[in-house]
């Protein structure tokens, strides 16, 4: 059996950065769609629903997708796949709904920093508890420092009168979304182990998320009514396709980069793109660009510190050989 062709490190890392770019772009698109519709829940349904259609087509067309779906069906029928492994879509629904409700107001930078902080803190807890597919991971000093830096970035983001312009619940949404993303990633990892392909695990997430968001959107529409006219710009409806694209890219590229390098590249792309988008396309109540630059640098430093495998180095002493 021949080994798969390995991508050059530079190309693979560039792809990881592109995943982060697409993630930030999706946040802005979903946020703008929610603003134009006047309904963040309906915007989230459109985003998730379009992604679900793409995923159904991919799973049906690819042999690995059909085999994975068969394993999923058998696992649910025999109860070897517990119900909570199918619940990752709830976190995805929270994330996309939060994008539609908050990004157009607070900006991509503030949203991204809140998500990174929530992911880092929740990731520490889940790793320590051994919830992820890799089992328990020790809570080291660098990981604690990284989490503290992520929280410090959130504190920096609140400078400049942000609290006077934005309701407090809108600032909590990105942090809650980050917690959900960390839990979703760990849950998806365990589901992927059972079904053998990330495509089917992603399909389960999009299916569950679409159902949850459809119910929420229906309730909201019954309370406030349907929006008058749907926006005509095609790019406002690309959020779901972009989401599927970067999920598939992630599954393909992490083999060539490793989890650590891929994570650092993706976060770098996400933070830089968030800053550029807010600079070129300011939000209604986001922080000033100077504050945004500082909070992104601090959040990025927290990710690097938390993810880098630090090792203690002892100076060699003369006269002492290796054991």
From TrEMBL:
Keywords: Membrane, Transmembrane, Transmembrane helix
GO cellular component: plasma membrane
InterPro entries, alphabetized: YdcZ
Keyword Membrane assigned: yes
Residue spans crossing the bilayer: 7-29, 41-61, 81-98, 104-126, 138-160, 166-183, 195-223, 235-254, 259-277, 289-310
Origin: domain of life: Bacteria
Pfam family, one: DMT_YdcZ
Keyword Glycoprotein recorded: no
Protein name stated in the entry: Membrane protein
Species name: Microbacterium dextranolyticum
């Amino acid at each position: 059996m021949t080994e798969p062709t390995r991508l050059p490190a530079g190309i693979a890392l560039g792809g990881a950065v592109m995943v982060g770019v697409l993630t930030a772009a999706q946040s802005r698109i979903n946020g703008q769609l929610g603003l134009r519709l006047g309904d963040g829940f309906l915007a989230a349904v459109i985003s998730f629903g379009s992604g679900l259609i793409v995923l159904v087509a991919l799973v049906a067309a690819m042999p690995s997708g059909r085999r994975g779906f068969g394993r999923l069906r058998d696992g649910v029928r025999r109860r070897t796949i517990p119900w909570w492994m199918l619940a990752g879509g709830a976190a995805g629904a929270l994330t996309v709904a939060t994008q539609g409700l908050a990004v157009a107001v607070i900006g991509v930078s503030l949203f991204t920093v809140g998500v990174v902080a929530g992911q880092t803190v929740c990731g520490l807890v889940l790793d320590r508890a051994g919830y992820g597919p890799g089992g328990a991971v020790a809570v080291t000093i660098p990981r604690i420092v990284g989490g503290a830096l992520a929280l410090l970035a959130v504190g920096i983001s609140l400078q400049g009168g942000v609290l006077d312009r934005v309701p407090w619940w809108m600032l909590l949404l990105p942090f809650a979304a980050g917690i959900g993303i960390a839990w979703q990633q760990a849950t998806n990892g365990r589901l992927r182990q059972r079904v053998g392909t990330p495509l089917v695990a992603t399909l389960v997430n999009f299916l569950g998320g679409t159902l949850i968001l459809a119910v929420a959107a229906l309730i909201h529409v019954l309370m406030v009514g349907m929006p008058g006219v749907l926006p005509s710009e095609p790019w406002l409806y690309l959020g779901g396709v972009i989401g599927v694209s970067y999920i598939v890219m992630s599954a393909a590229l992490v083999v060539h980069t490793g989890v650590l390098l891929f994570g650092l590249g993706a976060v770098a792309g996400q933070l830089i793109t968030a800053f550029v988008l807010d600079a070129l396309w300011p939000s209604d109540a986001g922080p000033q660009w100077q504050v945004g630059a500082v909070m992104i640098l601090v959040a990025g430093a927290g990710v690097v510190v938390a993810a880098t495998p630090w090792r203690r180095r002892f100076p060699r002493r003369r006269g002492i050989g290796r054991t």
